[in-house]
Amino acid sequence: MTEPAKRAAGRAAATLVQDGMLVGLGSGSTMRHAITALAHRVHSEGLRIVGIPTSTETEALALTHGITVAEPDATPVDLVMDGADEIETGTLRLVKGFGGALLREKIVAQSGRRFVVVADASKLVARLGQRGRLPVEVDRFGQAASARRIAELGGAPALRCDADGTPFETDGGHFILDCMGFGLIRDPFTLDRQLRAIAGVIETGLFLLPVEQVLIGTDDGTVRVL
Ligand code: 5RP
């Protein structure tokens, strides 16, 4: 994914925001462009918005840009924008969580009246699972037991680790199991249900909620809307 394509998608998402909105701010490199573009509008147009960040990293970026932030508790979020790791072209179902922010991203996405995805064409897949990895967030307690249960489902889970070999920790203090064994996911609803039936599973990277539009940026700066 090249920066011009990410920037084009991020800028297009920023144009959807209107004065007074509560805006869910997703995580990842494409969303960084959206937040930068949004901050530009806040300052140049006097747009009054409140951002609902989906990660501590996004929160820090929004605050750096002078965007007011809040949690999604008080009221429905008007518009949620976020990146994705896979977008199934026929259904607009998603895999998310390669960046590790899936739990907060899903909480915010479910709080939104509208959900818009920003990406470039490398994220488009004919079938979920094509990139070979499904992130699953699990409680630290009994994570090996949770991994065994996921392995029984064919998930071939691997504990995500930082460069120094220590387990990657999410903003919520949980671990991530990257599941490499599910192959192409023909029935994501059933897989999601099976995974969430495991007590240690906090959330899966399957985002099966309605997506209003997907903004696909390209290197020449144009944007395709799915
Ligand atoms: C993080 C995510 C991100 O939205 C996803 O990884 C996309 O990131 P990028 O725009 O950097 O490709 O799901 O948990």
From TrEMBL:
Lineage: Bacteria, Pseudomonadati, Pseudomonadota, Alphaproteobacteria, Acetobacterales
Keyword annotations of the record: Isomerase
GO MF entries: ribose-5-phosphate isomerase activity
UniProt xrefs under HAMAP family: Rib_5P_isom_A (MF_00170)
Residues forming the catalytic site: 105
Entry superkingdom: Bacteria
GO biological process, one term: D-ribose metabolic process
UniProt-annotated binding residues for substrate: 27-30, 82-85, 96-99, 123
GO cellular component: cytosol
Source species: Limobrevibacterium gyesilva
Secretion signal, residue range per the UniProt entry: none
Protein's UniProt keywords contain Heme: no
EC number from the UniProt entry: 5.3.1.6
Coiled-coil region: none
Isomerase listed as a keyword: yes
Pathway the protein takes part in: Carbohydrate degradation; pentose phosphate pathway; D-ribose 5-phosphate from D-ribulose 5-phosphate (non-oxidative stage): step 1/1
Main function: Catalyzes the reversible conversion of ribose-5-phosphate to ribulose 5-phosphate.
Enzyme class of the recorded protein, top EC level: isomerase
Name by which UniProt lists this protein: Ribose-5-phosphate isomerase A
Quaternary structure (record): Homodimer.
Catalytic activity: aldehydo-D-ribose 5-phosphate = D-ribulose 5-phosphate
Family: Belongs to the ribose 5-phosphate isomerase family.
SUPFAM superfamilies: D-ribose-5-phosphate isomerase (RpiA), lid domain (SSF75445), NagB/RpiA/CoA transferase-like (SSF100950)
